[in-house]
Each structure stands twice: as C-alpha cells, then as structure tokens.
Amino acid sequence: MQANVAIQVLPHVNSDEEVIRIVDEVIAYIKSTGLNYYVGPSETAIEGDYDQLMEIVKNCQLVAVKAGAPKVSAYVKISFAPDGGVLTIEKKVTKHHQ
C-alpha cells in the first residue's frame, strides 16, 4: 500500500531558535528511516508504505517531545493509493528545482 505524507510539526516553545532545533531533530529522525523525503519551508514530504508512514507520523510527535517540546501540534496530509500509483516527490517538484 503506497502513500506519501506531508507533515508539519509545530513545537509549542518560547523561541524561534527552539522551534528550529526541535524541528531539525524531527527531520533527522525522518532521514534515519531511509525513506525518500523532501524538506520544504513549511513541511516535509515522505514516501513509502502506508503503515510505515503512519508509524513515522506518530514518532515525529514523540521525537519533538523528547527534544523538549512540552506540547506539539502537527498538520498531516496523506495521499494513499492501495494499488500503487501515488505521485512521487520527484514528479511533483523536480521541474521546479532545476
């Protein structure tokens, strides 16, 4: 079951520097999964198996809390195709970054 998600993690902290530090830890976690991902200015897109992506979405919250956020909001977009065929990150953005 292929899917892609876009996740925006918003730690509730007191400074922009803390937001950046915590979000950087979340992105490092996403990178460690080995899945294809793309970091944008407001969200990170990730491609893979639906169940694996849902676990990653959950873990992103836990990583932010472990990094020091007392509370986290997250906005998630999901594109799901049980039989395959979701648009890939490459197809969506490559032409805009050449």
TrEMBL record:
GO terms for cellular component: cytosol. Pfam families: Thiamine_BP. Residues 5-96 form the Thiamine-binding protein domain. InterPro entries: MTH1187/YkoF-like, Thiamine_BP, UPF0045_domain. Gene3D superfamilies: 3.30.70.930. Belongs to the UPF0045 family. This is Thiamine-binding protein domain-containing protein.
